[in-house]
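> forwarded from #structure-qc
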């Protein structure tokens, strides 16, 4: 995926990926990646957890713009995403 991301970035389109393994992502060095501690097969949450999925997408868009250095992996604590989802579900 990192090779595809770099090709897309060469065309002037910003990309970001969800890392399911910081070790593997660190070796591939995609332009931008975010690690949420997600389970394999559920990178943005389980089906039907819309508030959680929207929070993950918001974090991805935020860091798509903010990550300056290629190969950077942002590690976001799962509790931060859970709190975001709980707040969104409550409003």
């Amino acid at each position: 995926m990192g090779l595809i991301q770099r090709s897309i970035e060469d065309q002037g389109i910003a990309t970001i990926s969800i890392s399911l393994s910081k070790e593997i992502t660190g070796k591939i060095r995609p332009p931008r990646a975010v690690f949420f501690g997600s389970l394999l097969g559920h990178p943005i949450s389980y089906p039907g957890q819309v508030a959680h999925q929207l929070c993950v997408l918001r974090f991805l868009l935020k860091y798509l713009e903010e990550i300056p250095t290629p190969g950077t992996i942002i590690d976001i604590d799962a509790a931060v995403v859970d709190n975001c989802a709980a707040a969104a579900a409550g409003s």
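QC bot note: The chain has four helices and three strands. The mean pLDDT is 89.
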